[in-house]
Amino acid sequence: MTAIRSGAQKLDEVTSSSTGRTTGPSENEMGSDIHKKFREAHEGHKAHAGLDPSRASTGVVWTSERAYEHGFLDHPEEWANLGQGAPEVEDDIEGSFKRPTSIDITMTGREYGPTAGIKPMREAVANLYNAHHRQGKDSKYTWENVCIVPGGRAGLIRIAAVLGNAYLGFFIPDYTAYNEMLSLFRNFAAIPIPLSKEDKYHIHADKILEEIKRGTSVILTSNPRNPTGKMVGSAELAEIQDIARNRATLIMDEFYGGYNYTTDCDGAVISAADNIHDVNVDDILIIDGLTKRFRLPGWRVAWVVGPKDFIKAIGSCGSYLDGGCNVPFQEAAVKMLEPNNVRKEMKALQHHFRDKRDYVVQRLTEMGFELDYVPDSTFYLWLNLEKLPEAINDGLNFFQACLEEKVIVVPGIFFDLNPSRRRDLFDSPCHHYVRVSYGPRMDHLKAGLDGFERVLRKYEAFPGKGKGA
């Protein structure tokens, strides 16, 4: 983000036709401590030779660091963290299986594991995808189509490492960690593809066709989408894959696939794996894991599914990037992936999180927020702040006001990926948004939304409808 202005002479610039605001910050932003902290952290100034601290954290980490300054690290139990993208990990979701509380470490678990993952885990993932997405199809996955990786970010980094020279298209807004991944490697040029608020940030097939026609040969996206909570459904996803077939590689981040409310919480997961013709020919790379769907973010067990040639390269590069995934946790995970068990788990997950979504939507509506839409997937809500008083109508200032009430959200500006640092993010279409997570337990959600209420009352923006739960 080195393009952010640091000189006063650059603060009075032209009005942006796309946003209707000046390139430089407003007087309200200039007087805001949180805006100053953001600019100072992302100016590109290097106090130590060779160090670029702006590469050190994603948006979620940055927000946590600001919360630490307000006491979050010392007393996290007093806070409502609606920022971090993690689901509740407790065992009290009705119909969900109990998570292991201990793990038997075999002699194999003491050894270095294969950087592509142990074979039983790779076989279990392939079997799950065949059972849920490849029934009746001639082409099916084998263990050679699966690479086990130590978390989704590691999977993305490995994929980026093996890509050839290409234009890589990514959508705005999208997952904050893509920003760092897209900026680390120079074997491809990252091309932003803005999505429209008026269209509920939907990815249409004709948008993909347009990008391919202008030379984009790799496309990265989350589906279901982070942070907007929207899903590209199976029919349109199939159309997108037909357009891309033999023309582009699709990297599909499906970590939120289990949080699907479009099929009446029947346990179904929408996946690109449904629409692949030949698992070794179609250039589709799918990333998923235990983190979100199985509510085990601390295990750091994820996978990449794709053509054998891709998987072989992705498995090999782990030897110099991350060293591979923890073997004992892989061994413990194998039995979790039994297809009938997973379908039952997804059904319980969907009912529970849809109820939490409905609660959050109701509370926000009672507070006077006008929602652009109701999310149909994930556990995120992309909250528009534009109609709030100016002092809190942008993501950073609303975030700062929430910190004072011991509530954490993530400013929308972090989801406007800017890996090449070519523009001032304060002109961002995400500037007046925050991402609200309803991943935490219900008591945390209630506490967080009570904090929202206090912020609105403080700035005389509360309509007097809600009861504060």
TrEMBL record:
Q: Which InterPro entries match?
A: Aminotransferase_I/II_large, AspAT/PAT-like, PyrdxlP-dep_Trfase, PyrdxlP-dep_Trfase_major
Instruction: List the taxonomic lineage.
Output: Eukaryota, Fungi, Dikarya, Ascomycota, Pezizomycotina
The UniProt keywords, alphabetically, are: Aminotransferase, Pyridoxal phosphate, Transferase
State the residue spans of region: Disordered: 1-31
Q: Which cofactor does it need?
A: pyridoxal 5'-phosphate
Q: Does the keyword Transferase apply?
A: yes
**Name listed for the protein in its UniProt record:** Aminotransferase class I/classII large domain-containing protein
Q: Name one GO molecular function term.
A: transaminase activity
The organism encoding this protein is Friedmanniomyces simplex
Recorded hits in Pfam families, A to Z, give: Aminotran_1_2 (PF00155)
Which GO biological process categories is it annotated with?
Answer: amino acid metabolic process
Family statement drawn from the similarity comment of this UniProt entry:
Belongs to the class-I pyridoxal-phosphate-dependent aminotransferase family.
| Top-rank taxon, per record | Eukaryota
tRNA-binding: is it a keyword of this entry? no
Q: Where is the Aminotransferase class I/classII large domain?
A: 81-421
